[in-house]
C-alpha cells in the first residue's frame, strides 16, 4: 500500500510498522551481511546513495546467527517512514512532516503508558548466569570503534529517584562482555543527571535498555524533551493511545510490552570501564576512549526471532540523520512558538550540520527585535540547545530547506559586523570535535540573514520575475522550455 491514510489505528509494534513500511516500498532486505563492518558500511553506502529517499534496511541471515535474528537500520529515515511512524498523511516532502508535527503539537496532550501483565517481550527471559548478549548479532559499525555496540537505536529507561518519573534517552551502549555494557551519556543529558542522583545517594542506578522497539519511541528517546516529561507520555500523546508496558522482574521498571530485546541491570558508583571510541554523528571519533560507568546485566528479555535496531552515526548523511532534521525542525518550531514567538514560517535543521549545527528559522518580521528573539529562542530552546553551532534567521521569502537560498540571503542581507552575534559558553560536550578535550561548552553564531527591520521599507527589491510574469512567459514558450 503506497497510501496509508486508510489505516484506522496506529501500528501496534515494530513488526507491524515494518509490514506497513514494506508495503509502501520503504524496506530493502539484505541477506548474508556480516555484523563485523559489513552492516555498518552497507548502511553508509545506501544512505549516501539515496540520501533522504533511502529505504530502511532489514539485514537477514547474518552469518553465525539464527536465520530469524535480524538487524534493522534506518527505520524512520525518510519523510514517508516518518509520516508513517507518526501517523501523518503521506507527505510530498520533509516540510509537510515538519508542519504536520507542529500542527499536531498545538493540540498535543501527553498520554501515560498502560501497565499490562504480560507481552511478547517475555517470550524469552535469560536470568543471571544465563545472560549472554553475544547471542544477538551486535554490529561492529566503524573501523575505529572500540567495540561492538548493542545500543545505537536504543532506549535507556530510568526512574528519577527524587522526582519519580521515567526518562527515556538514546545513549550508545557498548558490549564489554557477555553480561556488561557501557553507557556513554553526555554531560547535561537527563539520563546522566538521573544516574548522578543515584550515585550521590551512594546507590546503584537501575536501568533498562531496549534494543529493538516501535520507532515512535526511538524518535522520542533520541530527541530532547523538557525535563520531567516522560517519553512514554509524550509519544502516547502522538499515538493517541497509551503504550502498553510490562514491569521488569528485578527493578519493576516499565518496558514496552512489544519490544524486541530489553536488557535490565544496574550501574554502580565508582565502577567504570574503558568505553569508545565510536564513530559519531558529527562525522568524527571525537569522544575517544574514556572511563564510563557500565551496566551489570541481570536479565535479558527478548522475543522469538528478535529484531535488533541500529543507527550508524557517521559523516552525514547517515541512517538516521535525515529523520533527525525533520523531527528537530518540528520540535524547534513548536518550542519557539510555545515561548511566545509569532510569525514563524518554517524551520529546518540541515543534515550537513548533523541536524544540530546549522539550523535555519524563517519569519515574517513584524517588529524591531523580532529576528533577534527568533534567533535566540531557536538557539536555546530545549530542542535547539545541545551542541549547536550556527542559527540563521531568514525572511519569509526564503525557503529554509534550500541551502542555495539561505546562503544567498546570508550574502546579501547580513552585514557580518552588524548582523552576527556570538553567544559564549553554550551547552556542548565531548562529541564536539572543535572544543578542547575535557571541556563541555562551545559558542553559537546567530546569523541574521534577514533584511534589518529598520531598512525593510527601503531595502532594494528582489530582481526576479513575478510568478504571474514567469507563468505567462513559460506558457507562451512551453514548446521550447519543455525540451530543456
Ligand atoms: C542515534 C542516536 C544516538 C545517540 N547517541 C547518544 C549517546 O551516545 N550519548 C548521548 O548523550 N546522546 C546521544 N544521543 C542524543 C540523545 O539521545 C538526545 O540528546 C536525547 O534527548 C537524550 O535524552 P534526554 O534528553 O532524556 O537526556 C543520540 C541520539 C541519536 C538519535
Describe this structure in words.
This protein is an alpha+beta fold and 484 residues long. It folds into two domains: 14-310, Pnp Oxidase, Chain A; 339-455, UbiD C-terminal domain-like. It has 14 helices and 21 strands. It has helices spanning 14-23, 38-50, 79-86, 94-105, 190-200, 215-221, 231-239, 321-338, 370-380, 382-385, 403-413, 416-419, 467-476, 478-481, and strands at 27-31, 56-60, 70-73, 114-115, 124-127, 149-151, 155-159, 166-169, 172-177, 180-184, 205-210, 244-247, 254-256, 261-275, 290-302, 307-310, 344-349, 358-363, 390-395, 420-427, 441-449. Strands 5, 6, 7, 8, 9, 10, 11, 14 and 15 form a nine-stranded antiparallel β-sheet that branches. A five-stranded mixed β-sheet has the order 17-18-19-21-20. The two termini are 34 Å apart. The mean pLDDT is 97. Bound molecules: flavin mononucleotide. Flavin mononucleotide binds next to strand 8 and helix 5.
